[in-house]
Each structure stands twice: as structure tokens, then as C-alpha cells.
Amino acid sequence: MCGIAGIVRFDGRAVDPALLKRISGLLRHRGPDDEGYLVAGGEPWCGRNVEAAPRGNIALVHRRLSIIDLSDGGWQPMQSADGRFALIFNGEIYNYLELRDALARDGCAFASRSDTEVLLQGLIRHGTAFLSRLVGMFAFALFDRERRTILLARDFAGMKPLYIAANAETFAFSSEIKPLLAIRGERARAHPAALHAFLAHARSDLGGPTMFAGIEAIPPGHYLQVPLDRPGMPQPVAFWQPPARIAVGIGFEEAAERVRLLFLESVRVHLRSDVPLGAALSGGIDSTAIVMAMRRELGQAADIHTFSYVAGDGAPNEEAYSDLASAAARTVHHKVSLQPGDLAGHLDRLIALQEEPFASTSIFAQQRVFAAMRGAGIVVSLDGQGADEYLGGYPTFFAAAAASLLRRGRVPAVFRLLANARSTDIGLTGLAARLAGHFVGDSFLAPVRRLAGKPPFPAPMNAGWFTKAGVVDNPGRGEGASALHAGLIEAFTRTSLPALLRYADRNAMHVSLESRMPFLTPQLVEAVLSLPADMIVSARAETKSVFRRAMRGLVPDVVLRRSDKVGFVTPETKWVTAIRPWVETLIDGDAARHVAAVDLARLRTLWQDALAGRGRVEGPLWRALSVLAWARHFEIDFSPAANDSRSPACAS
């Protein structure tokens, strides 16, 4: 787990060593254990003291958080024996031992025990075809001195970030956005379409444009070949796509057994570490399954530390379930509780570390849980992130499940599902509107979205600014083998998981913690997304149906029978109204007047309604506040450029 960055100067000018040191400092939290540089133009130079490097127009920067092979054998940039290749790598390859054995049988010799060397040797021998054999989370850059290219790639789910920026003189990449802002050396500018996706639809991290104009993310499951002698922005190439077909002839019990085996194998390889591990435990099905599998794999004598956020002030609380799960797994359990006023001293810092606005104050609670883990000596955490998106864990999937049944003519099953699901927070009207949305044409989709409470410019957005910038409200539709599969794939690739992965990455790396996600392996995701829809969300309105069956006998029945979906929620209204001075300073400050994307008058009205108890701090209100704080911290210019209006929802 590390931080990486790189610069290519096409004009031949040397990269300033002081800039490289600054970039390293900006990424230090991602890798406090060591640093390394490569500078090339003539003969490549590698070392820790970049001031001593010869000048060159190509530079790589690496910060190391040591997890596998703590010796200098895992130091980066890691060069091949002949000096042709150099690799900088952020992440972990969990199946590196199996890959190492296979490469050794092919004649590869290894000088270290690190997964970095396995990745390097595999890429040298097999090229980009090796990417499909990796089980892990990764973002890396491979410098090929002979072909004069840099290969950039990002894991299939986007667990590890990788951003790029280019112009006629420079191509740059980084694990985070702040180094790219330093490299560009100009005022940051807002991207209207990306801001619209966030403010109107709570979407961000869409695998393309960021909210900073001119800075893009490499999409998950893609690689990029950067020629070192030709300026421009190369097109990403996909190496992974969600499965498009449903498995034929597989029964429910057979499917559950396959899911069980794949999940247990994933937990087993995710436990590979040379530093202490722990786990986040909410008491839900996903985190409980991970902790119970950890106990099964590590044995009865192992100390397993688990960490939970305990909500208060009337927020939904899972403490009883996390206590039960901890007792069942016999863990050393730690609890993190927060007071409303705690948020005030952390919000500006949270905006800085997240780099883009975020949709909920639950991000703060997650950050404090990660901080508690690191404070207790844990360096690697296992987390249940990602399961809800492809296992249908959210109540919003009930409408898609009903649409899948209806298209197959199973009308009685549709009525049974809707009857069982009507008690959720969505309500029967919301379910009906979402169900209708699966059967209307694109021309009728906007009215259906308004019926479901999703207008194109909800308060407090400044509709005029977005219209002038040429932004068109086109959230698009997902594609899949059924309506449910389309919704699952959309949540996995566009609407939910990408933002959650960014939140987790920044929050964990801020305290130099590695957050691992055993639910996110290509094999497990593909196995589930290849199953018939009613194995994932049943007609009984049972979410994660096949996984619940797979975990029987491992996870306590009382957890498997849970039908409530609490999620990682915080008492947002109480928290934000408790820091009223911070909010009002933000709204009334000089910086806010320049945030043309937000209608400040409407925002003040929503805020007064929340203070008077006539409304809540949620959805559009909080997102607008988050944008104001982001714009203030990064001094964002809201003068749009002509090419910023393309919809990030359509990015691939």
C-alpha cells in the first residue's frame, strides 16, 4: 500500500527535483515507511536522495507503506535485472504466492519475497494479459526504457485510485489529485458536468472526469499506454468487464456452495500480511461473515481485533449485532462513538484529504474508526465494502428485481415482492415509480425521475449556471442481462461503489492504514453477477439471498435473518446543526459568493428550515455545503471551459 506519481516532460525540459520532493511530501501519509525516485532522460537513476539525481525529463515518485516483505527487497521503484523496466505500485496482489510459483516454473528467478516483484516479473513475461490473472487491488506504472512507454493500470473495481492530467508539454499521474494540482501550477477549475452529477444525483468518481476540470481518473479495470515521445491523452483500454450472460442450469444450492468457496478463499488470501491485521465490524451480514471467516482461517488461538462505530443521538444503531458477532467470533472488540460537536474540528481537514465533495457525514465516522485501528497498532483492516452493490443489499434494488420478474411473466411473484418490500423507507409510491422507470422510453424517463423525487436541478443548485455551461441531465441507464443485473452493475461501476471506494481509500491512507475488501475479487463478483436475478434478490424481498444461504453454519442465524438495512449512517441533522457557526461562516463567507454552481439564497432557506425543524440536513443540502467547503479549500474557479460539459455519467 503506497502512493505513486510520475511526470513526463515532452518538451525535453528537466523535471525540478524540488517539485519531486514536494510531490513525495504530499503523498507521505500513503507511505510513511520509505520513499524512492526514478529520473530518466539519459541513463535512468534510482534512489532515495533525488537532489543527487542527474536531470531528466521523466520522473517517477514512490512512497512506501510496508506490508509484504518489510526488507529493502520490496523497495521501489523496482527495476528489472537488465534495467529495462522499472515499476512503482500501490496496492496488494493477494494471490502473489500462486503467481510466483507459476512464474518460477516458467523460469523466472526472484530476489525478494514481495508481491511487487511478482507483478514486475509477470508484466515483463506476459504483458497486459497478466492483468486478468491478478487478485488484488492495484494502481501501478511500468516504465519501459526500450519501448519508451509507461503502462498505467488500475484494478478491476477501482479500489486503488489513479489520476492523470495532460497538455502539450506534460503528462502526469498520481494516486491523489493534490500532486497533480502542484504539477499543473495553476488555479483549479470546476468541471460543471461532474458537479451536476454530484449535486443532482449524488454521483461522483465516475471513472473519467473528476470535479477538477482537466484532471481525470483512469477507469477501473482499464490500462493506459503512454508514449514518452508523443504528447496527448491516450485512450484507456478495458481488461475487465462485468459478465453479460446468466449461467444456465445451476441450482440454488450449487450456486450457494460456489459462492461460499470463493468467499472463503478470498478471505484466506486477504489475510496474507507481515504486519498486524484487524477488521471493521458493523454487525451486518457482510462484516460478520468476514470476521467469522477470519476466525475459521486463523484458528482459535489468534487475537482478532474488531472495530465498530456506535451511533448515538437517535440514529439507527447496530451495537447489539456487532456485540453478538464479536462474541461469536471471540474478538477483541473496540467501539468508536462520536459527539455532534466532534465534526467541527475535522470537516475542513476531511475535505482536504477526500479532495472532492462527499455525500454524507458518515465519511467522518469511518475516518475515526480507521484512526482508532491505527492507534491500536493495526496496519491492515478487512472491510465488507462492495457486497451491497453486487449482492443487491440496498432496498432500492427491489424495483429492479420486480422488473426482472415482470419481464419473465411472473406476475404473482411481483406482487409478493412488492408487498414484502413496501415497508422499506422507499415506500410503495417510490417502488412503483422506480418500477415504471424500467418500462418507459428515454423521453419519459425525466418525468418518472421527478415523480421519484429526482428533478434535474434540485434546490439549492443554480440551474442557470449549469444550463449556460451546456450540462444536460442524462444519468443514463445501466445494461445487464436483466433489470436487476443492470442495476447491480450500475451500482458497482457508476452510482455507489466508486465513491465509497474513494472515501475508504482516503480515510484509511490518511492514517497510513491498508483497507482490504475480500468481497471484491473478480472471481466472486463474476460468479454472483452470472446468477439468475431471483437468486440474488428473492421474491420474498430477501436481499443477498444466495450469500445468506452460503454463509449458513458460519454466520450466526440471527444475523443471517436480518431484514433491516442500516448502512453506515450518522445522525446528520444533529451533527451539522450542532456546528452551526461553521456552516454559517461557510455560507456567508467571501468564497461562497464565487461558487456559481450553488444558489446561496435557496441554500440559506433550506438551512433555516433545518434549524427550525421543518427540514433535515440530508441530500441536496449537505451536498451543497460540501461543494462550498471544497471550493473554499481548493480555491476553485467556476468559469467553465467549452469542453467541460460532457456528461461524466457516460464516461467509460
Protein model, in words:
With about 650 residues, the chain is an alpha+beta fold. It is about 40% helix and about 15% strand. The protein contains 26 helices and 18 strands. Strands 3-2-4-1-10-9-11 form a seven-stranded antiparallel beta sheet, covered by helices on one side. A six-stranded antiparallel beta sheet has the order 5-6-7-8-12-13, with helices on one face. Strand 15, helix 8 and strand 16 form a beta-alpha-beta unit. The protein is globular, with a radius of gyration of 24 Å.
Q: How large is the share of residues in beta strands? A: 5-15%
Measured as a percent range, the helix fraction is 40-55%
What is the β-strand count? 18
Gyration radius, rounded:
24 Å
Name the shape in a single word: globular
- Weakly predicted, low-confidence segments: 645-652
Tell me the structural class.
alpha+beta
Major sheet characteristics: 7 strands, antiparallel
Beginning-to-end CA distance, first to last residue: 26 Å
Average pLDDT works out at 91
Number of helices: 26
Q: Taking strands numbered 1, 2, ... along the chain, how are they ordered across the largest sheet? A: 3-2-4-1-10-9-11
